[in-house]
From TrEMBL:
The keyword Oxidoreductase applies. Gene3D superfamilies: Aldehyde Dehydrogenase, Chain A, domain 1, Aldehyde Dehydrogenase, Chain A, domain 2. Residues 42-483, 537-757 form the Aldehyde dehydrogenase domain. One of its GO terms (molecular function) is oxidoreductase activity, acting on the aldehyde or oxo group of donors, NAD or NADP as acceptor. It comes from the Bacteria. Belongs to the aldehyde dehydrogenase family. The active site is at 265. The keyword Oxidoreductase applies. Keywords: Oxidoreductase. This is Aldehyde dehydrogenase (NAD+). SUPFAM superfamilies: ALDH-like. Pfam families: Aldedh.
Length: 792
């Protein structure tokens, strides 16, 4: 026993173990054996597997490996329960969700200890971060349920949702998934990760107590095969997945063309940027939260440290000193910082990556401290001397391993930060607000924290750019992931094909009867098609109207390149973009008669005049939105604000509908450019001439060259090229081809670009409810949350 004097000399912590009494009692109460939670009741446990305590390797309980039939029964129960859950109304659902939030708080310590036992993360984190945040999610989303009628009047719940989560934040991920889904009126089949199923099973019990109706929340446990059964079940309307990019890609492929709504929250390799004017001591503390929180098993962990050269040595010295003071040990000890890794498999994976870096000549530094003997552990690790392309600098390590590099200028910092396939999060440390706010928007990531790290709140959306996935969780934007616009239901199920042969008037005397070849429009100039082939376009009466270029892969490549060069359009002010769209409307109005005649000649439509008027109005509509689609300032519970910015997606490929060759084209292209995207558009395959007639309108409207490029030809072939192009950020296809839309979704999996497809359903392009509104704005933008705490 040390004397008080000795203790004061060393200032060592005494042991402060958390009791496991209640958690153990709960496990015993269930005989340490769990069935599934389906239709409000527990099933018998047939085939089971063990879930272990990673801190010492001991078995905690046996948990059921669900069968395909179990998943089917869970989906059926959810389907049966859904109308009743919707019928409860927003207020009714809000009350149930409020009860869930209260019960989570009431049993907070039991949840926290159980989570620590099952996952290995420290009690400090489960108690102070995971539990309060999970409860907050249910409170916040109870509010959205209450407000549903007012704020989401034009939407309905998607239906039955399948949700699959990883093991790093078992209960928090459950809350992120289940709360918004319930608020919107969906019912749920939820699968926790196989390493960490226990807190979800305790949550099932809480659902019973809170009065969640039977079948509304179903919990099925098991491994990836159970996940696969959920993904492929035809009764699932929407899937929400958090986990590895590899599995995310598999799910994207599996759901392509099925009509299932999808959100993916995948991996990351987030930069932590320290400028020379940063408060270095504060930055070191931020770094601890960023990379050593949860043993680095965090999708948005700041795993790449980028430090300005002039302070690099000083900063690294401070980091090492701080690492030396991190306490590694029993996660149940309240004064420990670093707990156990979730499973020996992860330990081996991390070990392999670090050792290969060492073999490549990197310096690997670890503090001198003891580690427990049993269980799976890894010391905090700092790697220096890695090249930017080294595996440790590019791959998601998902462990307590930091890779440090230096940079000279802010420009270089941004380049290094963006040198990754991921785009989940970033931290920027500088005492200069102007530098920080200049750098933050240049980073391709869904969340940027300024002078802070790993902040989360239910009001602020979270999610990735690039291969970190798509869709947002939290915030109003997160609610839309669980809602379907009512206008979708109003659309006919049958594909709409171009109507032909309705008008028999001959085109004698028509100004379009002359033989001419319309070129492509690339980089603001007319361009001959690369293949030097043309296709004949005939009118409604079958007579030849004109030749158009047969665009090919090379033309798309040129168009995408031109679109990238027109990056200035994305930086143009909203006011400026609005002006250009208003000019386009004005110039179209001046030439309205020509456009009416052209539409009539192509489609035989009697509605041509109405179509041109509607097109002019639509340009006005999207011009109006340009400077009104504001982001939001969230007020999470901290001293500061979080600014949610709507940003353009980037370069969007758009396959336009066949019907309404002018209105369909403008209805899709105008919102995309209104929000600052650059576009490669493929006009109506059957009636492309109306889009080509726009060249002069575009030239006289100050739209910069390359912001809108037009390539005519085969919709299927051009869509295929766009969907597989690595430098296209999103593809929209609305020409009524179900197979074509499925293909776009499938091909988009490689670079995980966003897609918006019409499937086999046609839209009435005259109907503003179907063609306008927030759904379109959401497709044309992505949300970035910038956190700005005040003071020091
Ligand atoms: P994982 O992506 O395989 O597992 C996540 C969840 O998906 C689990 O519930 C699993 O059962 C389920 N799953 C697995 N295969 C599936 C399939 N084919 N269809 C549907 N569901 C499926 O992640 P894992 O194997 O646990 O970890 C491997 C690596 O993935 C980690 O080392 C880390 O790099 C990364 N990872 C990233 C996460 C993140 O939040 N970014 C979370 C978990 C893992």
């Amino acid at each position: 026993m040390p004397t008080i004097k000795e203790i004061l000399q060393t200032m060592d912590y005494g042991p402060a173990p958390e009791s496991t009494k209640e958690a153990t009692a709960w496990l015993e109460q269930h005989g340490r054996r769990f069935g599934l939670f389906i239709d409000g009741a527990w099933t018998e446990s047939a085939t089971t597997f063990a879930t272990n305590n990673p801190a010492d390797g001991s078995e905690l309980a046996q948990v059921t490996q669900a069968s395909g039939d179990d998943v089917d029964r869970a989906v059926q129960a959810a389907r049966r329960a859904q109308p009743g859950w919707v019928a409860l109304g927003g207020h009714g659902r809000a009350r149930v969700m409020y009860a869930l939030a209260r019960l989570l708080q009431k049993h907070a310590r039991l949840f926290a200890v159980l989570e620590t036992l099952d996952n290995g993360k420290t009690i400090r984190e489960t108690r102070d971060a995971d539990l309060p945040l999970a409860a907050r999610h249910f409170y916040h989303h109870a509010g959205w349920a209450q407000l549903q009628q007012e704020e989401f009047a034009d939407y309905r719940a998607v239906g039955v949702v399948g949700q699959i989560v990883p093991w790093n934040f078992p209960l928090l991920m459950l809350a992120w998934k289940i709360a918004p889904a319930l608020a919107a009126g969906n019912t749920i089949v939820f699968k926790p990760a196989e390493y960490t199923p226990l807190s979800a099973l305790l949550f099932a019990q809480i659902c019973q107590q809170a009065g969640v109706p039977a079948g509304v929340v179903n919990i099925v446990t098991g491994d990836g095969a159970v996940g696969e059964a959920i993904v492929n079940h035809p009764g699932i309307d929407k899937l929400a997945f958090t986990g590895s990019t590899e599995v995310g890609r598999i799910i994207r492929k599996a759901t392509a063309g099925t009509g299932k709504k999808l959100s993916l929250e995948l991996g990351g390799k987030s930069p932590f940027i320290v400028f020379d004017d940063a408060d270095l001591d504060a930055a070191v503390e931020g770094l601890v939260d960023s990379i050593w929180f949860n043993q680095g098993q965090v999708c948005c962990a700041g795993s790449r440290l980028l430090v300005q050269e002039s302070v690099y040595d000083r900063f690294i010295a401070k980091v090492k000193l701080r690492m030396q003071n991190l306490r590694v040990g029993s996660p149940l000890d309240k004064s420990n910082d670093i707990g156990a890794l979730v499973d020996p498999v992860q330990q081996q994976r991390i070990h392999g990556l670090v050792e290969s870096a060492r073999a490549e000549g990197c310096e690997v530094w670890q503090p001198a401290c003891d580690m427990p003997q049993a269980g799976s552990w890894y010391l905090p690790t700092l790697i220096t001397g890695a090249s930017t392309s080294a595996a440790v600098a590019q791959a998601e390590i998902f462990g307590p391993v930091l890779v440090a590099m230096s940079f000279r200028t802010p420009h270089e910092a941004v380049q290094l930060a963006n040198n990754t396939v991921y785009g989940l999060a970033a931290c920027v440390w500088s005492e200069s607000i102007s530098l920080a706010l200049d750098v933050a928007p240049q980073i391709k990531a869904g969340v940027v924290w300024i002078n802070t790290a790993n902040q989360f709140d239910a009001a602020c959306g979270f999610g990735g750019y690039k291969e970190s996935g798509f869709g947002r969780e939290g915030g109003k934007e997160g609610m839309y992931e669980y809602l379907t616009p009512l206008s979708e239901d109003a659309r006919p199920a049958a594909p709409i094909v171009a109507e032909k042969g309705r008008v028999k008037a001959s085109d004698e005397g028509s100004p379009f009867a002359v033989d001419r070849t319309a070129k492509l429009y690339i980089g603001g100039k007319q361009a001959r098609p690369d293949g030097a082939y043309s296709r004949a376009i005939t009118g409604a009466n079958g007579a030849f109207l004109a030749d158009v270029g047969e665009g090919n892969r090379k033309d798309i490549r040129n168009a995408v390149e031109a679109a990238h060069k027109a990056a200035g359009w994305s930086k143009a002010t909203a006011h400026n973009r609005a002006q250009v769209l208003y000019y386009m409307a004005e110039n179209l109005a001046i030439r309205a008669d020509e456009f009416v005649a052209r539409i009539a000649a192509q489609t035989g439509s009697k509605d041509a005049a109405r179509e041109v008027q509607a097109s002019i109005e639509r340009l006005f509509y999207w011009a109006a939105w340009c400077d009104k689609y504001d982001g939001a300032a969230h007020q999470p519970p901290m001293h500061g604000i979080t600014v949610a910015l709507n940003e353009p997606v980037g370069v969007i490929g758009i396959i336009c509908p066949n019907e309404n060759p002018l209105l369909g084209f403008i209805s899709l292209v105008a919102p995309a450019i209104a929000l600052g995207n650059r576009v490669v558009a493929v006009p109506s395959e059957a009636h492309p001439l109306s889009a080509l007639d726009l060249y002069q309108v575009l030239d006289t409207s100050d739209l910069p060259g390359g912001a809108l490029n037009i390539v005519t030809g085969s919709a299927d072939e051009l869509a295929r090229t766009l969907a597989s192009h690595g430098d296209v950020d999103a593809v929209w296809r609305h020409d009524g081809s179900a197979a074509g839309c499925a293909e776009v979704e499938r091909l988009s999996a490689d670079s995980l670009k966003r897609t918006w497809v019409g499937g086999g359903k046609g839209r009435d392009w005259f109907d503003a409810k179907q063609a306008c509104g927030r759904t379109v704005l959401q497709h044309a933008s992505q949300v970035k949350n910038v956190w700005i705490p005040y003071g020091v």
